[in-house]
Amino acid sequence: MTAAMEAFVRVEGLAAADVSEGSLHGATLANGTRLCVGRHAGVLFAMKDYCTHAEFPLSEGSVLPSGEIECCWHGARFDCRSGAVRRGPAEDALAMWEVEERDGAIFARRPPRAGP
Ligand code: FES
Q1: Mean pLDDT score, 32-49
Q2: Between these two residues, 7 and 72, which has the higher pLDDT value?
Q3: CB atoms within 10 A of CB 21
Q4: pLDDT > 90: what percent of the chain?
């Protein structure tokens, strides 16, 4: 059985042009979900705005030239495409959301297996 796909939801208060190369931004969906949106190699990515290690906001971290997101609290690193852990202390991958740019706005959709 296939999980139902959720609809794309507009990211409030953040335009695609605001997300420059290598930057991370905290943003909120209309339903209150807090996301971290960033850009690497010209492509937008997004995930919930907390580190899987101790829930520090990832939007406070940085995107390395390698495309890894680095949490600035204890230094965990994640692949910005797959969400896979590249360096501890985090053990659990990030659930990456699908992101689309439409007329300068950002829309995001929860991945099917992202959990609550
Ligand atoms: S909270 Fe991110 S590495 Fe610890």
Answers
A1: 96
A2: 72
A3: 11
A4: 85
Is the confidence at residue 25, as pLDDT, over 60?
Answer: yes
Give the distance, in angstroms, between the CA of residue 87 and the centroid of all CA atoms in the same chain.
17
Residue 111 has a pLDDT of 84
Which ligand 1 atom lies nearest to the CA of residue 90?
A: 3
Ligand 1 centre to CA of 79 (Å) is 15
- Determine contact, residues 95/55, Cβ cutoff 8 Å: no
CA of 76 to the centre of ligand 1 (A): 6
Homologous superfamily (CATH) for 9-109: Rieske [2Fe-2S] iron-sulphur domain (2.102.10.10)
In this prediction, residue 30 carries a pLDDT of 83
- CA–CA dist 98, 7 (Å, integer): 10
- For ligand 1, is residue 50 a contact (CB within 6 Å)? no
Centre of ligand 1 to C-alpha 49, Å, is 12
The residue whose C-alpha atom lies closest to atom 1 belonging to ligand 1 is 54
